[in-house]
Amino acid sequence: MKSRFLSVLAMAGLGTAPVFAQDDSGTEQFISPVSDEAMFEGGGGYTSTDGEELYNTFCAGCHMPAGEGASGAGEYPPLSGNPRLEFAAYPITIIVNGQGGMPGLGHLLSDEQVLEVTSYIQSDLGNDYAPDGTLQMVADTRPVEEGEVLAEHEVEEENVDPDREDGGGNETGVVRHRIPNSNFPILLAAEIPADATLVYLSGTVPQVVNPDAAEGSPERYGDTTAQTVSTLASIEQKLASIGLDMADVVKMQVYLVSPEGADAMDFAGFMEGYVRFFGTETQPELPTRSVFEVAGLANPSWLVEIEVVAVRP
Amino acid sequence: MIEMSRRRLLGMIGTVAGSTAMYNAMTAMGHAQPSSYSGPIQLDGAPQGTKILILGAGLAGMTAALEMRAAGYEVEVLEFREKAGGRCWTLRSGDTYTELGGATQNVDFADGNYINPGPWRLPHNHYAVIDYCRRLNVPLEPFVQTNYNAYVHRGDAFGGAPQRMKHILTDYRGHVSELLAKAVDQGKLDGMVTQEDREVLIESLRSFGVLNDKNAYVKSLQTSDYRGYDKQAGGGVGAAPIPSDPLDPSEVLQSRLWTMLATHETMNHHAPMFQPIGGMDGIAKGFEREVGDLITYNAKVVSLQQDDSGVTVTWEDTANGGATRTTTADYCVCTIPFSILGQIDHNLSSSLANVIWGMPYNGSTKVGLEFKRRFWEQDEDIYGGITYTDQAITQISYPSTGYLSDGPAVLLGGYTWRGADTFKFNAMQPAERIEWALRMGEKIHPQYREEFKAGVAVSWHKVPWVLGCSGIWEDRERDYEDAVAIDNRVVCAGEHLSYLPAWQEGAILSSLDAISRLHDKIING
């Protein structure tokens, strides 16, 4: 930057009169954060690669000079003290592609400019995050133009990922990401389109498998495997009653109680029941899943309680 | 030969050439109305006691309020601002405007002088807004879009000297016509032009380009009658006109100043254009006279919820310490810009919510400059019209009113539309924007510094009630139907839900369409 005059902040609230300073020769000198030569050169685009200067001449218009944001009928979120700036991927995505009322700005900035301004807002404006963005990250964030030849790594990610399944039997638009190089029957991630209808089932508990067994006896509900099977069967019924099936399940939380006399939950026993419902020949879909050991459930005989979330096709 | 249906043909024309071309093609095929506006709407038979809540008292909201009350509905309007009109807005002497960030501008114009920061001209073919001006007794006057004596200017053309549009227009047309006429005459276009047409074509080019009988565009009284003389015809002694020299053909081409001739020819800028006398907010005031009693001002909507029984809107009464209030209704017409609505807690359906959240808003900057005298009239014989420049200000528009008067006058000293320059102006304080407008404008009018009196600069990203100028469709083909559909008890309307974005006509037509469909749903289920 060739010259930097007084901060624009000093000018706020001065009404409509242009602000001038007198230099030694007595000619009027306009107070600007950016030198004359730099402001509108380059056919109207942004030419600077200085993160601070880009911020002051671009982002500051809405997010304000100190990153404090602004509030009218709606808001411009503050960047100062914004925990979402800890990792560069988030601001880079928004700068390049926009969000809400903010237009995507990627077409006005080079990869280097996006990176520099990202690093600036991560580490300045009262933020103290270590800039972790890379030029590659910016390039990867840009939308793919029609007819664009993809780089090799993009082709792998987008088109030939063997661990990715689009849709599923029920055309929900859900993207199910398998765990790479693993046969463990849960997903790495499930990607749910924004217009999907999510259905949350209440926690479901085991069914009595031996009505002849005494109340409170371990035989009445069976072991962890038996309880898992009756619980999942019950879930399958509930889903069917509202027009869904196990293939629609995208998320599962499993609560297991340690059987009497055991040191810990019977995870292997649970898995034995689980694999009868998920990843089978007739029902190949898998959900994302978490399993927790808990101290107890509402009925002392219960060893299993399961919650699921399904996507309506 | 691929067989092509008429519908598919129109679709292809639309895809390749844009909706204007499709519209023109449809008109030529005799199947289009001149406009989707076919006169005042008649909504009859509103069920007694049915209440409509309208969010926003801009042109879309007030159109809905006026027509739905006339239909017999109970109508209530909530407006964020302290007055009606939204982007239909005029800043005049004595007004104060505070933008986001806190910079306050006190408009120091002479009495009666104003600037329209938002819409500023009405095409005569925007039938709906013109008809509402008629019905609401909003007096109009001509807005001069095209002025042959205004300038076209580029820093890299003619040494940076502004050129009168009449010179560039006439010379460009003359030189191009000469080339074409010679090519035809020499038989170079015989494959494309029949022998019959050849003679007529040359005759028409002589007329169109002002060519002589050798098909040449040269210095003559004839060409000067179009481009202007060195000395104009007069009366009495020494009154004979002296012709002027046309500009060099190559220089005219290379100057690229011809790029600045096209806007005038587009349908939205065809003469005559109009403006409300005294400021664009004359239209807002016209509506307000009719429906002002229905509007609650200073109401910041924070929640919009609907269920099977009705609509509940929660809002903050910003005139009374932000007290939370609730308004219920049977149905809602929501004209809140999507830049704001996307931040409001609502339970609209996901298909509509996706469009709301996915619509960015563009920016725009306007700078109004008041000068002590009308030097453009007095020194340069420019009465209204627009000078175009390749500088960031893009144009200077001279006032289409108050001609020949003494005293200060306001011109539009800059008008940016999207792009990097808009963001640069947006990041500046108002005084900086004004200073830049002066710096750029003085390259065209050296009188600027000497005559400058006061300025106002509005950057639309910083306008608190909209955060932008107009909605941008990321994919209109994909999203439009979802966005305009009635969502249970709520229908959205505004310029953003039209094919005339940023025009008031778009806002009104969107509103008329939305309330017609809503009324039909209320009556017929």
UniProtKB/TrEMBL annotation, chain A:
Q: Which InterPro entries match?
A: Cyt_c-like_dom, Cyt_c-like_dom_sf, Cytochrome_c-type_DH, RidA_CS, RutC-like_sf, YjgF/YER057c/UK114
Provide the alphabetized UniProt keywords. Answer: Heme, Iron, Metal-binding, Signal
Renumbered to this chain, the signal peptide range is 1-21
Q: Which GO terms describe its molecular function?
A: electron transfer activity; heme binding; metal ion binding
Superkingdom, natural source:
Bacteria
The Swiss-Prot or TrEMBL record describes its family as follows: Belongs to the RutC family.
What is the protein name for this chain? C-type cytochrome
Species: Aquicoccus porphyridii
TrEMBL record, chain B:
Tell me its EC number(s), please.
1.13.12.3
Quote the pathway field: Plant hormone metabolism; auxin biosynthesis
Reply yes or no: does the keyword Transport apply: no
Any Gene Ontology biological process: auxin biosynthetic process
Where does the record place the Amine oxidase domain? 59-514
Q: What is this protein called?
A: Tryptophan 2-monooxygenase
Q: Which UniProt keywords apply?
A: Auxin biosynthesis
| Family under the similarity heading | Belongs to the tryptophan 2-monooxygenase family.
The chemistry this enzyme catalyses reads: L-tryptophan + O2 = indole-3-acetamide + CO2 + H2O
A Gene Ontology MF term for this entry?
L-amino-acid oxidase activity
Identify the InterPro entries for this entry: Amino_oxidase, FAD/NAD-bd_sf, Flavin_monoamine_oxidase, TAT_signal
Give the species this sequence originates from. Answer: Aquicoccus porphyridii
